[in-house]
Each structure stands twice: as C-alpha cells, then as structure tokens.
Amino acid sequence: QVQLVESGGGLVQAGGSLRLSCAASGSIFSINAMGWYRQAPGKQRELVADITSGGNTNYADSVKGRFTISRGNAKNTVYLQMNSLKPEDTAVYYCNADINSGYTRRYWGQGTQVTVSS
Over pLDDT 90: what percentage of the chain? Predict the structure, then answer.
C-alpha cells in the first residue's frame, strides 16, 4: 500500500517561513512528478507547485519568488519551502505524487494546515 505523509504545517505570522515535507512509502517502483496543492475555505483546490523526476519545476503565479519546491536525494520526498508568507497563503496544503506501484496513478497526502496571521 502506497502512502504519502506530510508534515511541517502550522501557524506563522505574515512575513515568516515554513517548510513542508512529504514522504512516499510502500511498494513503489518509481515516482514521476510530485507536487503541492492547497485549498482555502470556500475555494477550489489549486496547484501551488510541482516538480518532475528530472527536476523541472512549475509554480503558481501567486507564489513565484516566495516558494521553492524540491525533491530529496532518494526522490521519494518532496519539500515546499515557503518564505514571505501572506495571510492569503492560509489553506490546507496537500502533496501528491504520480507513483508506479505496478501501474501509475496519482496519490494524495492527508493534508496539512498552514495558517498565516496578519
């Protein structure tokens, strides 16, 4: 059984920083793209950033220059470094990964709350 487990959320003041982590475990043959989405109350889930197995990255315009996505050396972990946080970054953040465990499908983590106070 494949699992994605996130950590690193919390409460921070505007202008502060947080680092989210997400680790994939289980019966995994390979991992392709990994990414982070977020969902604020009353809003749709939106892409924050993603990264391919080759290291190519993509960011939402709203976080460019403030957030950095990266993968661990073992390639089964994805990080989201969030700097200069704003109250509008408040949301539940979900990681996802396209994982081949016999066939390829997208897996999601359980979500971690990020709250930015003004």
Answer: 96
